[in-house]
Amino acid sequence: MNYTFFIALKHLFGRRKNIFGYITTAISIGGIFIGVAALIIVLSVMNGFQKDVKERIVDINAHIIVLKYFNEPIAENEVPELMDSLRTIDEIEQMNRFVYSKGLIHYKNYTDGIIIRGVDVADSNERQILKKHLKFGNIPQGMDQIMLGIDLAEAIRAHTGDTIKIAMPFASGQKGPSLIPEVKKFEVTGIFDAGMYQYNSELVYIPLDAASEMFGLEGGVSGIELRIKDIYRAPQISGLIKEKLGYPYRTNNWIDLNGSLFSALALEKKLMFILLLLIIIVAAFNIITTLIMIVMEKTMEIGILKTLGLSNYEILKVFIYQGLVITMIGTVLGVIAGLIACYFLAKYQFINIPGNVYLLNKLPVEVRILDIILTIIISYVLSFTATLYPAMKAARMNPVEAIRYE
């Protein structure tokens, strides 16, 4: 063992003149421990939150949608030519027609606003997506069947087998727009859980033909939804499609539509990182206090060591080693505690959060090795910086002055 490292350990954990020295060392280790553990837990939760929100948005929504300007419907005879044109783009994996509008749902004494989505339930890809989120019942098949989000069903007290009413204010039919709401009856065949309160509380699915007829589209659709190979290239492919199709078609993609949400999440993660970093900074100041106390307590020993031939550089190393040992113990314990906490949070999900505020009902966790490495590096850099002043103070001590009055 390096003798300067051995001396550092003896100064830290050897016999001390008073118990207060042990307490300050423990506080320094505890500060690093709490800061590192908290940083790992919070960063992992933020990572999990971003990942879950992103996956659930992409899972239930298309990566790219093709629409007409001013949300004009795409006529039935335009759809085949449009889809043939889109098939020439290699990045597109699947495409489906859809109808999208808003309305009111009524059951017994309960009424709520909804988003009505007409989907092609005969398409195997669409059925697979719906089946993935199906909680109770079956996927709609007939023209008068509907599938509700689980929070919406709870809000209006509806269950599978119940008959509900859908009202469309200012509905457009063959005779033109009407101020009299059109009301249709539907049987609830299924209840789905998309994992996000926003969708569970507003969205309903009905067969595409029923939606097209309900909104007077005469076989037309609101647009074409696309799923692509690389979801993160959605903006580029969206621009390519828009350029290829030209007017009157336009495109939207999941990144642009949810850009403000992801920007807010990224900003929140950065702010939490900075705030929790303050804990480690405070712990670094505790290390300064601990080392200064050791310097004051070990004045005679430092003088003796310098008399025996230890250079200023070797004395400097002794106290830097002490600071790094404190950091190592606190960091290792903090990483272990943080990973254990993340494991239990991810496995048991015992922390519930209000879905209407935070989009998700459970606290998700995703541990990233880069976050752990970054936390460790920052912890050591701050602690090393904190050791320099007391270490230099000890190294510059005059051995004659140190032992004169001892």
Nutshell version of this structure?
With 406 residues, this protein is α+β, with helices and mostly antiparallel strands. It is built from 15 helices and twelve strands. It has helices spanning 3-13, 19-60, 79-86, 124-133, 150-156, 197-200, 208-214, 234-245, 254-257, 259-297, 299-307, 312-348, 355-358, 369-395, 399-404, and strands spanning 64-68, 92-107, 110-119, 134-137, 145-149, 163-168, 172-173, 176-177, 182-192, 203-207, 223-228, 249-253.
Describe the structure.
The chain is an alpha+beta fold and 406 residues long. The protein is 56% helix and 19% strand. It has a six-stranded mixed β-barrel, surrounded by four helices. Strands 7-8 form a two-stranded antiparallel ribbon. The protein is elongated, with a radius of gyration of 32 Å. It starts with a helix and ends with a helix.
Which key phrases capture this entry?
alpha+beta; elongated; 406 residues; two-stranded antiparallel sheet; 12 strands; 6-stranded mixed beta barrel
Number of strands: 12
Q: What is the CA-atom radius of gyration, in angstroms?
A: 32 Å
Element-level helix/strand string = HHEHEEHEEHEEEEHEHEHEHHHHHHH
Average pLDDT taken over every residue: 84
- How much helix, percentage-wise, in residues? 55-70%
Largest sheet: number of strands, sense, barrel closure: 6 strands, mixed, barrel
Portion in beta strands: 15-25%
Would you tell me the structural class of the helices and strands? alpha+beta
Spatial strand order of the main sheet:
2-3-10-5-9-6
Q: Residue ranges: pLDDT <50 for 5 or more in a row?
A: none
Anisotropy-based shape: elongated
Termini separation comes to 30 Å
Number of helices: 15
